[in-house]
Write a structure and sequence with these properties.
TIM Barrel; 18% strand; two-stranded antiparallel sheet
Length: 329
């Protein structure tokens, strides 16, 4: 496994990291086994999404005795009410949820506190309230309960505002060759629909300018870029996916556009648009300035495949890019 700096934090994280989105229904022994496989394979960044309390308990058991051997990113800005997930920026609810998280994880600190899912202007304003949500996060950091601050978003404009705010050490953003064909402000619902890509004009086939500017802003400000959704939420693995559609129209590989447009030191042109094997994943981040990939894990076979193949076959390509930090989700 190769490791990369997470922006200005100075922390080294694995190029391939461990996402937990699909583990909510796994039993405690399965979670422990999957986590051990990840750590033994060199993955040291764990992205802990909003999971039901019982699932958090399972991770707490898996972390026992080895908490300092990995970097834990925990999403912040939600609670559970009557067993149902509830997104909130209320500082009292968030602090209670955070304290419960520490208790269940059997730890007294979180490495990366991830502002969860900030996609709208109003949500951004609430998240960056110095007297509320942001103030709470800064206090938790001052108290030593949090080491670094990060934010997750699907909207390039929100990512750009976050970079300019100066508060965040890292940003989690969907990085893949399908989403990069779309405007940075497109709705989350449309991103997952194949018709969205069929309707693209040939003129729209470069990397969307707002996304390109966001990637470069992260690089210039030394803000770590954690890439989620490298397979576009599975869209790139389906028959009739955006890549098949582009090939059918005889259009050039978007990777070529990206490689020539992004002014990243030592970046070479890449034409591996069709490579969606685990070994090809880092190419996605390599052309965007990412440091690594963090994918959701649905089971042992997928974890074994990504753990073994990605670092061995493709990680040396990712060393060419210094800013991109990790791939997630």
């Amino acid at each position: 496994m190769n490791y990369r700096k997470l922006g200005k934090t100075g922390v080294n994280i694995s190029e391939i990291s461990f996402g937990t989105e699909h583990l909510a229904k796994e039993d405690r022994d399965s979670v422990r086994e999957l986590f051990k496989m990840a750590v033994d394979g060199g993955m040291n960044l764990i992205d802990l999404l909003p999971l039901v309390p019982e699932a958090i308990d399972s991770f707490g058991a898996a972390f026992h005795g080895i908490r300092k051997e990995f970097i834990l990113a925990a999403h912040f800005g939600f609670t559970f009410q009557k067993g149902e997930y509830y997104k909130t920026r209320d500082p009292d609810l968030c602090e209670a949820s955070f304290d419960d998280l520490l208790l269940r994880l059997r730890t007294d600190y979180i490495d990366i506190l991830m502002f969860h899912w900030v996609d709208k202007e109003l949500d951004y304003d609430e998240a960056f309230d110095r007297q509320g949500y942001l103030g709470l996060a800064l206090r938790l950091k001052q108290e030593g309960k949090v080491r670094f601050l990060a934010l997750s978003t699907h909207i390039a404009a929100m990512g750009m505002k976050t970079v300019r705010s100066g508060f965040m050490d890292a940003i989690m953003f969907p990085v893949n060759p399908a989403h990069d064909l779309l405007p940075g402000d497109i709705s989350l619902e449309l991103i997952w629909q194949k018709d969205t890509y069929r309707e693209l004009s040939e003129e729209a086939m470069g990397p969307a300018e707002d996304r390109k500017e966001f990637y470069l802003a992260c690089q210039e400000s030394n803000v770590g870029l954690i890439a989620m959704k490298p397979y576009a939420g599975g869209l790139l693995l389906q028959e009739g996916n955006p890549i098949d559609h582009l090939r059918g129209r005889g259009l050039p590989p978007p990777w070529w556009h990206c490689a020539h447009t992004y002014t990243v030191p030592e970046l070479r042109p890449v034409s591996t648009w069709g490579d969606h094997s685990p070994a090809g994943l880092p190419e996605t981040g390599r052309a965007r300035g990412c440091s690594g990939l963090c994918r959701g894990r649905r089971g042992r076979k997928r974890l074994q495949r990504h753990r073994c193949e990605c670092p061995v076959e493709a990680s040396k390509e990712m060393r060419l890019l210094r800013p991109l930090s990790s791939l997630s989700g």
